[in-house]
Amino acid sequence: MPEGPEIHRAANKVRKALEGKVIEGIEITLPRYSDKTSDFLGKTVQKVEARGKAMLIHFDSFVMYSHNQLYGRWTVNLKDTPAKKWNRSLRIALTTDTHACRLWSATDILMMEPWELSGHPYLEKLGPDVVIPETTVADLVVHMNQKKFQRRRLKSLLLDQGFFAGIGNYLRSEILFTSNLHPERTISSLNEKEKNTLAQQALFLSRQSYEVPGITVDLELYEQLRSLGQSRGRSRHWVFTRDDSPCHRCGELILHTRPGKRRLDYCPQCQPAHS
Ligand SMILES: [Zn+2]
User: Fold this and answer.
1) What does the alpha-carbon distance between residue 25 and residue 178 come to, in Å, rounded to a whole number?
2) Do 232 and 262 belong to one domain?
């Protein structure tokens, strides 16, 4: 499932192809918007941005909102390259004089007036975005100190987009590991140093995973594992999907849990239940 780093990378590709460009071709397969082609044709894309796991494409008079949920994907091609043949359904294709940007399989797509953005149920509740460079450690610490988060456990809080926006399954496990925090800990049980570490690691790992796609371990360790013949998938995380393998830091076996039916892996030695 795409997480913040993946959405921001997708937004970059779409931004390069669309920002400042005029839409010359449009295909919409969503029944509720099938009569809206003239809203797009001849219009200039003002801005493309990611917010949490959503993408916003701003035109003069409206904004196209999309959230990829589990299956949605963007592809960006040169205009004359045929569309990819795969088992996904095309939802919308935006074509400029040079490129075609296609959104596949997403179901959560909305055309909104700019003023509606602030009241949108997903956008409105988003916490600070961990991928954008404007977010600081201090921002995250101030945000986590709010009363409503104090009794929540890290395992559920880290998937809540109202806490830190952009974190999903793999980042949750990885951030808890590099912060040395047990998934059952609550915010109120953290001391100041632990809060700072959690904030720093949330930013550091999300940004590394954005810059170096999907890799959360130290890059030196990654290269070392790859040179030993480990696959990319087996080399890129500290704990996520590494259950029953030895911890890279202490050698203890990584444990697997599924709170809320979503994978969470951790090291019982590096992440003790009590500080
Ligand atoms: Zn360990």
Assistant:
1) 47
2) yes
